[in-house]
Amino acid sequence: MPKNRELADYIMDQLSDLGGIRNIPMMGGYVFYYRERIFGGVYEDGFMVKITEASRKSMPDSEPEPPYEGAKPMLPVTILDNKIALQNMVEAMYPELPERKAKKRKA
Question: Mean pLDDT of all residues in the chain?
Answer without folding.
Answer: 93
